[in-house]
Design a protein that fits this description.
The protein has two helices and three strands. The chain is an alpha+beta fold and about 80 residues long. It has one domain.
């Protein structure tokens, strides 16, 4: 399990990165319709993390994307344990 101080550091890095990203509209890739997203990957001495930010006028788009990633994680976790 991730240590409390490590989790705090990850959130701090993500927050600082997103502030910088928010100042540049070119950071966001336009997706179909009114759906856009931003992906960032980072790391420190102990591990790696990724952040995905999405926005859609249709809330189901975001829900479906989260479900897709949850399915992907579950599928890949089972491969690692075999």
């Amino acid at each position: 399990m991730i240590e409390q101080t490590d989790a705090k550091k990850v959130v701090e890095v993500i927050g600082n990165n997103l502030i910088g990203v928010s100042h540049d509209s070119n950071s966001f890739q336009k997706l179909p319709d009114s759906f856009w997203g931003y992906f960032a990957r980072g790391h420190d001495k102990k591990g790696t993390f990724g952040v995905i930010v999405t926005y859609s006028e249709n809330g189901n788009d975001v829900d479906e994307l989260i479900k897709m990633y949850e399915d992907w994680v579950n599928k890949n976790k089972s491969k690692e344990t075999k």
